[in-house]
Specification:
mainly beta, 7-stranded mixed sheet
């Protein structure tokens, strides 16, 4: 029902910035939750940031607070992740995800809460 396509990844030097985009196609609902996750080699998938599709609610993992900003535009079914002051430890594949039935606040951080996932986009931060 929903397809997600990420873009904007690439190679950047430490201290630089990237802006990731995730475009959703198909029918969507204003109640959807949208999240960003990342996964580095040999590590578990990690929650980064999330928002309600309609806006008004955001959440971030501690390691990116003050550096990353999630935003969404329900009019064009697009969610963004602005990434500033990038560090080598930010290197990972970044995934966009959609939760069709968000509920409790803590649930937005769990990969298992999401019903649709994009293919991922590689972000590499060099020293």
């Amino acid at each position: 029902q929903v397809q997600l396509v990420e873009s904007g990844g690439g190679l950047v030097q430490a201290g630089g910035s990237l802006k990731l985009s995730c475009v959703a196609s198909g029918r969507t609902f204003r109640s959807y939750g949208m999240g960003w996750f990342r996964q580095a080699p040999g590590k578990e998938r990690e929650f980064i940031a999330a928002t309600r599709w309609s806006g008004g609610v955001t959440d971030y993992t501690d390691s990116v607070k003050g550096r990353f900003t999630i935003s969404g535009d329900s009019a064009n079914n697009t969610v963004y992740l602005q990434m500033n002051n990038l560090k080598p430890e930010d290197t990972a594949v970044y995934y966009c995800a959609a939760d069709v039935d968000p509920s409790a606040a803590w649930r937005i951080r769990l990969p298992g809460s999401y019903d649709y996932w994009g293919q991922g986009t590689q972000v590499t931060v060099s020293t």
